[in-house]
Specification:
By secondary structure, this protein is an alpha+beta fold. The protein has helices at residues 7-20, 31-51, 80-97, 114-126, 140-143, 146-154, 160-170, 193-211, 230-246, 284-297, 306-324, 330-351, 355-364, 369-376, 382-385, 389-394, 397-402; strands at residues 59-65, 72-77, 131-136, 174-176, 179-181, 215-219, 222-227, 258-260, 270-272, 280-282.
Length: 413
Amino acid sequence: MEEVCDPENLRKALKRVRENRGSPGVNGMSVDDLAGYLACHWPEVRSLLLAGSYRPQPVLRKEIPKPDGKGTRALGIPTALDRFIQQSILQVLQPRWDPTFSDHSYGFRPGRSAHQAVSEAQRHIAEGYEFVVDIDLEKFFDRVNHDMLMARVAERVGDKRLLKLIRRFLNAGVMDNGLVGPTEEGTPQGGPLSPLLSNLMLDDLDRELERRGHRFVRYADDCNIYVRSERAGRRVMENVGRFITRKLKLKINADKSAVARPRERKFLGFSFTPGKQPKRRIAPQAVDRLKKRVRLITRRNRGIGLDRVIAELGRYLVGWRNYFGFCETPSVLINLDSWIRRRLRCLLWRQWRRCRTRYEALRARDVGRELAAKHASSSLGPWRLSRTLALSVAFPNRYFDALGLPRLAPDRA
């Protein structure tokens, strides 16, 4: 606990909490208010921590949509002060614990990434492990057994004050619609400590898979085991499922888990092409999510100018490209670039409501008289017209480049 309260450790924790931003917790304090609060109250908080008597406040329940659009995910938002204390604890424990974790675990670990996990999965497939046992743990973060988790923490931490504090964070309760309820299991997503504790809990699964000699990759609660045949995969699913249920007291989501060819499943947003040299490709679900978001940004009834649309679109596309640009099938990115520009041409066409306005706008953008007249009076819908020669001449690719629209396939002219 003295290391947790070390001034240098605290400075780093405050900096990280500020960088991560995040919503206020149950007391409404923002991260911008945290420094001022600590300046006045830190001596009191420090005394409570060192005496082992600090009590965290309940976390604030917040529902966010799942990436696949099916349902919501429950987050538990600690107060800014509790996030700061959790971050301080994390910075002390993670350097000790992380080197002991499996080399096949990639989620929420320093120096490790989802791209590395996908690359390892690709290597297993290339080595002839052509079936994947895709295991999805049902509501893992909500169902971790506190006693089992704390037993594993106690094996690594001797300071009873710190053990008591971690237990109190787990049992702090959840405020939902103004009412506070108990938390008897789970590590609420939203706090800095939750990912480290989840990796500690699932380290038992990693060690069991290593003991059995399996080829596997795990990212948080998403675990893929690679085998040579479907029969072997079904056997592994049964045996590993029994270990997860009986030893870890967790539950496998049968609807989302399966034994299949890797090309039929997605892993961290990617899939793989068939053949002896599998290539990384973007999973269809990820492409669908991109299109849904672009449609939302470029819908016609927003009442904002093209510059603002492209600015918002650009922020989203840059982040998406940074992650999914890791694919090895650039034709998908090229087609998406084309589709996005078509959406924008369609948006612009809708803004020219009258035939005369459309004709004059096309002529002003170097479209020939006859072609402009033909399209201005066309009965075709905006989406059909958005891929015609007239709109391509009026708004060539370089037009959108000049407005700052990023390309998903930037090396393509």
